């Protein structure tokens, strides 16, 4: 779908974050565009969640990886179809969007009803632009920066752009059409990544359960998650071969964005840096170093090598340091298989938990150190091209998202005129298909406690 280009005439907006506007656009405060809705006592309505990229959607309570029994639903706020709901603490990240149906959001959310001159989908796009989210920070209030909230009284004072209503509708139609193509692209890349990951796991699984010699005699492993292994391999308890370093329950009041020791939380598991620091004394028994193997003990029990700097390990995580018989590299290959078995067996209506005792009881079949090194080298060689392909696909997803973000900014601020655009049959997309635009689990802010997360 071609974009016509810039508008013919512009005027000064008076706003530093968008200096010029099409001459017939207005700037109004949000209180002129929205009314505050505070309605409770509707426990039979579906629960809604907010994606940082695609807005509000109905929560799939049946297929959640992390389930929670909802209580006191009568205290949750009703958002009528077309209302905008936003997470007071995370709107600055894009946790805002129009409700697709009548539903419920946490008391920690604000719900606003659009007046006739406001298309809530247009404003959902506008509110998630980087420039507007910076404005949200300016209007938010709190004791400390990372606990700031955007209350209704502040939200209604914020200025917003106001194209004529027909133009708002046209902008929404155009951006949804673009999102249709982008969502298909991302879905195809994710499907490719899934296939590549499965191929990689098959290589690892065969290597750590059968070894590299196809002629070797096998024996029963005696381990419930594993059948046969090479007969010369030894079965060891991880509790005797590995030192387990448990995370420490640090005081969240000491968390700081800039000052102190890097603090690794579950959300940092696959990163090379941490989101927060501990502005307090170092706890020696919680120290981890570059290359340590760390395990998330909630949810999916994920495992990763820590690639960041020396840091402190937060609670609900543990670090595994081999001290004899098994190398860190080999343990990193085999332990995800055991933890997946435990995870699949764990029945829970809430977040699944793993204890250090569960880890200590695990048994592994291992070859001698020389064969471990050979297996690790084989896996690295065989999976290197697969890892490269996965990295390329992930980079392509990142680039298409950056393109989308730039396009949205240009269109919703009037720097690009899309009034002449006409959607084609291929541009039609439903909200389910648009879910591919979302990031993975961390993209969703979930109803629940005070900060909008479970």
Automatic annotation (TrEMBL):
Keyword Nucleotide-binding in record: no
Region described as Disordered: 435-454
Source superkingdom: Bacteria
GO molecular-function terms, A-Z: DNA binding; endonuclease activity
Keywords, in A-Z order: DNA-binding, Endonuclease, Hydrolase, Nuclease, Restriction system
Acidic residues composition bias: residue spans: 439-454
Name assigned to this protein: Restriction endonuclease subunit S
Natural source organism: Luteibacter yeojuensis
């Amino acid at each position: 779908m071609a974009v016509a280009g810039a508008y013919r005439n512009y005027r000064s907006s008076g706003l530093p974050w968008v200096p010029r506007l099409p001459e017939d656009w207005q700037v109004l405060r949000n209180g002129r565009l929205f009314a505050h809705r505070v309605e409770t006592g509707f426990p039979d309505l579906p629960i809604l969640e907010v994606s940082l990229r695609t807005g509000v959607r109905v929560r799939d309570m049946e297929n959640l990886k992390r389930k929670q029994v909802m209580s006191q639903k009568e205290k949750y706020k009703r958002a009528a179809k077309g209302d905008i709901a936003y997470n007071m603490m995370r709107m600055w990240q894009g946790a805002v969007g129009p409700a697709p149906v009548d539903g419920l959001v946490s008391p920690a959310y604000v719900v606003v009803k659009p007046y006739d001159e406001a298309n809530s989908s247009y404003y959902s796009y506008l509110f998630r632009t980087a420039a507007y989210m910076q404005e949200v920070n300016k209007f938010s209030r709190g004791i400390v920066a990372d606990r700031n909230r955007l209350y209704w009284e502040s939200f209604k004072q914020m200025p917003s752009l106001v194209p004529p209503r027909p133009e708002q509708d046209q902008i929404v139609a155009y951006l949804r059409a673009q999102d249709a193509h982008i969502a298909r692209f991302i879905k195809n890349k994710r499907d490719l990544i899934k296939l590549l990951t499965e191929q990689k796991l098959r290589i690892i699984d065969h290597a750590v359960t059968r070894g590299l010699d196809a002629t070797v005699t096998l024996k029963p492993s005696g381990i419930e998650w594993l059948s046969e292994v090479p007969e010369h391999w030894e079965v060891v308890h991880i509790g005797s071969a590995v030192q387990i370093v448990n995370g420490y329950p640090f005081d969240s009041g000491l968390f700081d964005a800039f000052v102190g020791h890097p603090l690794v939380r579950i959300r940092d598991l696959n990163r090379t840096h941490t989101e927060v620091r501990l502005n307090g004394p170092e706890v020696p028994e919680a120290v981890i170093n570059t290359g340590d193997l760390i395990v998330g003990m909630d949810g999916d029990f994920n495992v990763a090598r820590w690639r960041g700097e020396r840091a402190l390990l937060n609670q609900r995580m543990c670090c595994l340091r081999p001290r004899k018989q098994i190398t860190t590299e080999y343990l990193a290959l085999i332990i995800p298989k055991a933890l997946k078995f435990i995870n699949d067996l764990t029945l829970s209506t809430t977040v699944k938990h793993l204890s250090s005792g569960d880890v200590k009881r695990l048994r592994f079949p291992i070859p001698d150190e020389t064969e471990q090194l050979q297996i690790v080298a084989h896996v690295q060689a065989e999976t290197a091209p697969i890892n490269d392909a996965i990295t390329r696909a992930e980079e392509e997803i990142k680039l298409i998202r950056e393109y989308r973000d730039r396009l949205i900014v240009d269109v919703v601020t009037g720097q690009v005129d899309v009034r002449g655009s006409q959607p084609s049959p291929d541009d039609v997309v439903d909200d389910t298909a648009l879910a591919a635009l979302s990031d993975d689990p961390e993209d969703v802010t979930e109803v629940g406690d005070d900060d909008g997360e479970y």
